[in-house]
Every structure is written in C-alpha cells, then in structure tokens.
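Weekend entry, working from home. Most of the wet-lab plans are on hold until the incubator is repaired, so I used the time to fold the two sequences that have been sitting in the queue since the last round of cloning. Logging both here for the record. First:
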Amino acid sequence: MTRLLVSLVILTSVVHSSYTQAQTRDEPVDSAAVAQILKEATEQSQIMEVLSYLTDVHGPRLTWSPAYKRSAWWVRGKLESWGLESAHLEGWAPTGRGWSLERYSAHVIGQQASPLLSYPKAWSPGTRGTVTGDVVLLQAKTDSALETFKGKLKGKFVLMGEARKVNLNFKEEARRYPDSYLLELANSEGPRRRQRRFQRTPDDDGRALREYRKWLMCQEEGALAVLSPGGFDGGSISVLSATVPTHPDTPRTRRARPWGNKVPKVPPQIAVAVEHYNRMVRMMEKGERLKMEMNLDVTFTKEDSGYNVLAEIPGTDLKDEVVMIGAHLDSWHGATGATDNGTGVAVCMEAMRILKKLDLKPRRTIRIALWGGEEQGTYGSRAYVTRHLGTRERVNESDSTQDEQPSSSQSQPGTGAPGGEWKITLTPQGEKFSVYFNDDNGTGKFRGIYMEGNDAVRPIFRRWFEDIGGKTGSFTLSLTNTGSTDHEPFKNIGLPGFQFIQDEIEYFSRTWHSTMDFYDRALEEDLKQSAAVMAVFAYNAAMRDEKIPRKR
C-alpha cells in the first residue's frame, strides 16, 4: 500500500490542554473500517476520473444555466450507479435566468492590432454581431471631470477604471501552510472577533456615486461595451457577473441582479487581463487613438429554479438521524471550475463511493448534498436548511431577509447564530440532525478542521484524526471560524457545520474565480487524502452512540 502523504504528528493546541489523552481515547472508533477506507481511497480511487468528467466534459457550471443542469443530472446518475439511494435534484428559490456563452472575440485594430486577452462577464448581453468603434478611457475623479464625458459614449468601447499596478511575484505562487501557521490556528482561544462594520466617509460616498453615474452614462448613452481590469495577473483573469447600475443607497435586498428577469438594459461587459488593459490605458494617456472590434454571442434561457443534488446511504438503527457531507456544484464560467469547486464535489462523491463499495452499514443515514448557487450567496444550502432543518429570526426585531418559518418545533433564543439575539426554530428533521462537513477551499489536502467555537467536538475530532494521522499527515484542531461557504446556514441555526483547513496551494493566487481554474491545477494525491478523511469523518459520525454535540 502506497502512503498518500508523509506521516507527521498531530498539532494540538497549547492553550486548550484540558482534554486529556484518556478523554480522547473514550471516543470509540472502528479502526478496521478506517483501514479499509484508507486502502480503498489509495488503491482504487476514481476521484480524478470523476473530476475530469465533471470539468472537462461538462465544463463550467454557472448557476441557473443549462450547463449546470446537465452536470447536475450527470452527477445524480453517477451517484445512483454506485448504489446510492434517493438520488435526485431538488429545486430552490430564488429563480434566475440561464446564461450561456456561444462565441466571443475581441481585437484592438489599426496601427497597433492585437487580440485582446479577455473574457465576458456572466449575464452580460451580447453585441448582436461584430461591432467596431473607438475606445474611450473613462477616468473621472471629480464630478466636474465626469461631466466632460456626457454625450461622448454612444457607439464607443469604454475602459472603466484606471490601470492597476502589477507587483512582480518573487515568492512561489503555490504553497502549503507551514507548521508555524497551523500552530497559530491550534492556539487560537476561540472564534475570530467579528470585524467592525465599515464606516463610509463622505469621500467614499462621493466615489460610489460617481461610479454609479459612470455606469448609468454607459447604459443610457449606448456604449458598445464596458471593459474593466480583471483580478490576478500573468494571464489569469478573475471574471464574475455583469454589473447592473444601482444607486449606492439602495438596500442590498432591493438591488437588481443580472440573472433576474426585470433587469434594465445594460451594455456588454468584459473582464480584461490586467497587462492588456494597462497597456491600452498607457497608450491612450500618451495620445494614441485606439479602435476595437468585438463579437459577443450569448444565449439567455427562461427563468428557472436552482437545483441541489442529493443522494444517501440509509442508516440502520439510527436511520432517522442524518450525517451530511457536501460541496457546491456551481462554478463561475471563465474556466471549468476545477478547484472551485469541482475538487470539493469530487472529494464528496468519492467519499460516498468508498463507503458504499465497502458496504459498512452506518447506523445513521449519510447524505451527500451538492449545492447550487453558492457563488451567488449560498442560495442552495440556505434553501435546503430552511426547508428541511429550521430557520432563525431576530428576537423582537423583524428580519425581512428570512424565509418562511417551517411547520416546526422548539425555539432556542440565541443558539449558534452570530450577530446578536436570534430565535432558532428547528423542524423535527433538524432536531435529529447530527452534523455537516463541507469542502470548498481548492485542491489542497486537509490539514485539520475549523471547530467554529465548538470546543465540545475537540476530543471527538482529535480521536478521529489520531486514527488516520499515521497514514495521511498532520492535522490541526482550531477553534476559529471560517465563513463564506455552505456550512454557514447549518451553523446559523445552531447545527454543527464544519469546514476543513486546507493547504492553499495556488487558490487565491491563480485559480479562484479565474480563467485558469482547470483540471490541470488539481493535485491527485491531495484529493485522495481529502476523500479518505471525508469518508472517515462521515462514517465515524454516523456510528457514534450520540449525535455530534452542538455549540453551547
């Protein structure tokens, strides 16, 4: 048996030393089953084949798009072919229009002719054929400067924004977390403090209003397209969704979204590689007149619900209690969503394949959930939690952002939800729910887990990591929180929801939301390790006499 990774010791917290080895050993583990899981994950892995089909064959999976739904049906079929039960797609609101890119090209033409390294933003309208026009650099740092552009944007390509400084990279882009950083996480005394809300100044308000007016001018005067510098550099472009001009004082819950049906007509919008964008800016600042030619062909499909994919391995004596693992299936459209979040999907699918193939008979039901709409705000997981598990609402304060209350049960003021006093209302399913484990931080191997301030899970997770640490590497237990992904809706109603600590690799330097997020950036051995850990955690949670303890 080839080891997945070099064996290291477990990093444990210096601050939280109250849990003794005896307490850790009190957590029973089926070591024979764990050994079987590790062997299957190492010697019979299908994880890269699954990832290739998901990313190479099915490609980008933009929420609400036909491509997303095709990939969801493929995933459902794959899970069913492995023998999982109740494999199905479950719809959720809000609805949205689908968007597909059919064809795109852009060139700077004339004396300085060159193809433009760039990519259309999601839900951008097309150009209705090939269009040609002059380029305008819309730089205006004052209201009076902005006035000089009035009436000059019709039929023009507009560069929206200044050149962005590129810092040469003298450090490696791909990196693993050093032990010193993991020890810092282990020594954390609790969840990170919430940052103070940003206080806008009059200058900030002025800039925001000018940006709104810039977009409104482009929209109303009929610009051919608006181009802006994408994130990253070195050929990788961060590309998200089109902008709908919205007055900065508009509440977030009332802002128009580009995927909605009632959206004002906006110009085509393009994210440009920063080096290409900067060169155009510098040329125009030196008096060069630039022209462009562009052809952008897109298809909008009718508004539809979003979809999650669910399947399960039924439990035995505790089958009404549920352990869940999951990742978000949707991606942005500039590449194929390999590390965000094809790798997480493949890890969870592989974990379920392993458990089903080994026929280990978990006591609790183990359910996989592959979410839609995470990139738009954890829509899919929030809808699932609201429909099946419970809701929260502010105590003595209306909260217009909440979904309808379930036809449920017990109320628990203030349990588990951040941001003040909340009433948590759990459904019968929520009362019987055990735990959710999430994967959404790229291709890096699991280095531990964020305990989300729930110190009661420390001896449990420590025991589980000890049983697999000799085969898969070092692990860190940290009380800190991590957010902005699909475990949050569970945690927000007081249910245990966790995200693993993962090596960053080149997630935030190269692949996250970028045009370089392809299969080639995935690390096979790391993904095998992650799938093994995910399977062990799901199985161990399903076999305990008690559910995973909830945060007090």
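Second, folded right after the first finished:
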Amino acid sequence: MELFEHANAATAAAFPEQLKAVKRAAEDFEWYPTTREIIAALVADVRQEGDRYNYSRANTCRAFLDVGAGNGKVLDAVREIEGMESLHAIEKSNTHLHSLPADVFILGVDFWHTSLLDKQLGFVFSNPPYSEFAEWSAKILREAPGDCVVYLVIPERWERSELIAREIEARKLKPEILGRFDFESAEDRAARCKVHLIKVKIPDGCRWMKDSPDDPFVRFFNESFPYPETKEEKPFAEQIEEAKIVYRLNFIEALCRLFDLRMAELQENYRAVCTLSPDILKEFEISREGLITSLRMKLATAKKEYWQRLFDGMGEIQTRLTAATRKRVCDLMQSRTGIEFNRDNAYAVVMWVIKNANGYFDQQLLDTYEKMVEAANVENYVSNQRVFQWNRFRYDTAREENSTHFRLKVGHRMVLQHCGGMETGYSERCTGLTRHAADFLSDLIVVARNLGFDVIDGGPEEHEWKDSEARVIRFKSKSGKVESLYRVRAFYNRNMHLQLHPDFVHALNVQHGKLRGWLRNDAEASAELEIARESAVQHFRPHFRLDGISSLPALTLGAEEVPQHRDAA
C-alpha cells in the first residue's frame, strides 16, 4: 500500500500541468481523474478477485482495461497488483496517449468505434464522461466478454437509468455497490458529483455455450445481422383456403399461385447467394456446380409435390376410385408430370385424369365383384342349367368373360375366404384388419357410391375391429331412411362374413351382368336375376361418370374462365 500511495502522489503532481495541456488542445472530454479513495477501493477488490482465483482460470484474468484511461492514473495503481500481467487502455486524447507508459497497450482511441466483444480481458474499468455515462456504461455491460469483472465509477442516479437496466436484464447481471464517493474534495479536479463504484461480474459459460443468447458476440450478431428465423408454416390446407378467399380463386388457381410464390422465393434466394463475394462462397463451400445441382433438384421436387397436391385435391375423383385404381391413376399421373406446373397445364392434367378415371370405373366394379365370387356365394342365372365343378369355375370359367355357360350372381350373404380378415400383433392401419381386408371393404364403399348409394359412414379404418364382432356401414336411401349398406364380421382365421343390402346386391349383379355382356336390357336383368322389373330398370342405368371438369366443383368453383381442352391432355 505504501508503494501505491507513493506512485499516486508522484503522478498527481503532474496532473495540473496535464489538465492545462488537454484544455489547450481542446481534448478535455470531461476528464475528472479517479480519486485516490476510489482507486484504493478498486485495487483492493481487484486484488481480492485475483486471490480468489489465483489467476488460474486463464491468462485473460491477468489483463486489465481502462476505458477512458486519461493519463493512466488507475493503470499505474493496478500495475502493482501481483499477477497482473497486461494493461490496456482506450483513450481519445492525444495528449493523454503520449503520456501513457510503454507497457500500456492501446486497444482503441474512440470508444464508440471500438468493440469489446472479441477482447480477452479479466477486468474492465471505466470512469466515463458524466454527460453520457448511461450510454457509455450500457455499451460496456453489453459488450464485456464473459468471465470478466466490470468496475464503473458513475453518478448515483445510474439506478434509475433505463439504458443500464436494460443491459443488466438482458445479461441477467447483478451489480454490487462497492462504495459511495464524491468529487467535491478530489485531489486533482473537484466537482459537485456523488458517485458509486459498482462492480458487475459478467457470468462465465457464455463463451463455452454454443450460440448462447447471453454471449455478447451472439447478441451483437443477432442485432446487426437479423437471421431469418424458421417460421412455423401454416398447414397447406389453410394456405389454399386463404388464397381462395383473399384472391377469389378456385383450388387450381390457388395452387398455381402458391407454386408461383415458391418459385419466386427460390429465384430470390439463389440470386442473393450469387451476390456474395467469391471469398465468402468459398468459405461456405458453395460452388456454381453445387448451386446448379441444388436448384435443379428443388425445382423437380417442387413440381412433383404440387402435381401430387393437385391429385390429392381431386376429392370427387379420389372417393370414386378403389385403392388399386387410385394408385394406378396416381402413378400414371406422376409419370407424366415432368411438364411445368402452371394454370393451363394443371387444367389439362385434370382433364386427363377425368378421362382415365371414367375408363376405370367399370373395371374396378368388375374387379371388386370378382373378389366376392366364391363357390358358396354364387348362384346360376335362371337360364344357366349347366352344373360345374368348383376348381374349373374358379380358375377357368372366371376368365371366360363372354361365356354363356357360367352366368353367375352373388347373394346377399357371403363368406369370403380370399379377402383377408383380422390380424394379430402389428396392424398397418391400426384397426385390427389386414390391409387386404380394409382395402376390399373400402372398395365396396367406392363401388356403392358409383352405383348411386349415398354412403354416410367413413371407411373401415374409422372402426376398431375385434374378432367376430359386427361392424356396419350405412347409407341413406332415396326416401331419407338410414339403412345398412353392408354388415361385416372379420375373424382371425382371415375369413369375413358379409351381409349386403338387397338393393346393393341387385345393383352389383345387374351392372356386373351388363358389363360382362350377359344382360342386354332391363327385361333380361329382371328375368335372369329374378328381381322386380322396377329394380332392374333402376340399376340397369349407367352408373357414375365424370362429364368434364365441371364435375369437380371444389377445383373449379369461382373460376372466371376455365380453359377448354381437347381430349389429348
């Protein structure tokens, strides 16, 4: 302490002359040298901090910075602390700079243009200009590196400063008042000012935690370079509805608008990347070839995605196609979607899907019907007197589509041995049914809809299936009565017992016989199938057909002008 007092006494003698010198050079900058009393409290605490850690944390703990060092009065005192290895200063006055000892390293001249973010320091001290102490102190608290101690000599009103409070809150700091002082009897330059010497420990850990928001450099980056945050994107269905409502578009037009926005965003992003300097591109390992490959892939993926979304939006078609047919149409559509996704092409593809879907409606009825053709489930037409053996029927006769010898019809009660049933353990659809059984029961609903039945229940996946327990799929009759379309029980032996509504059986048999060429008119249907003439007339009519893009109101509703396309799409 004796050495400290001697050094301060020797330095103080030169202060009056130096004060005159800075005034002559117009470099006063509110220089009020820190008093001996304040320096004594500072040195005592710095020494205590050094003893506590024994300077073993890192070399950075042995570095001391005085922000606004003046002629180095504080640095002279700190130099005498054991273990303090490096002294640093930020000082604007040339007069003061020339007077600083050679062992003081100058980190900067103008504090407002000097950053502390990347400095390796153990202690930061400042006795700032009082006219801007809040801004000055806030900058130090904002930029001081982690695991260092900040000391500030500032007016006691600092506790009411919003700027300082904001930085304290942002970094979760806990200021400590080491002492209350004034400059009224200061040995170098008196002033009517009451001050606090405050100590703020900057928490450790921010330098070790990757991208920690407490890290001052991370905070600086976030404030200086706004990084695009990943936004939670609205569900696609909401985006479509929003585009339809805001811009009064139908589904196709809205889908095309969203695709155009995606393309514009891609173009803007890749153009922005290409404005970067070659050095930055090299640093991020971005090459021209890589960008070309990436863009090509993104364009192809986006087109495929939007063509699939277009197909998914064709609900009127989806509900009219069986599982196998739906996959077939989707695969065909995807194989032809290398074309650009735009308004005209979208309408053309929709027309193409409509044409193909109509071609499948008849075949999927035949396919679903044939799955029910078991020996125990069929009866002969009235005119078919021939007796047949089961094996020949199953493997030979079923292929003779135009045969007049084996004209068959299904009954309304069936035992199905080839359509799957219950399964133990893991169920792909989580219903207890095999996929084969679930697809078949869903296909029955599709066929019923195409035959004019107003099915009001969802598919089998909406039910929880248990061995031998009956499940019912209902429809609403033309009179408005709710009835059972079919009643089914599934078993672990992979069999299903099926009971169909009489009208549904009649419709299946009439349309199957008509498509096979076995029934030429409703009169034949009534006679051969032994059903009422009225029922034969009703079910002999052509079943569901798509008659153009107007059949899909969800896609075209609100369109002012729908392109007209020829058959070729």
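Plan for Monday: verify the second prediction. DSSP finds 21 helices and 14 strands in the chain.
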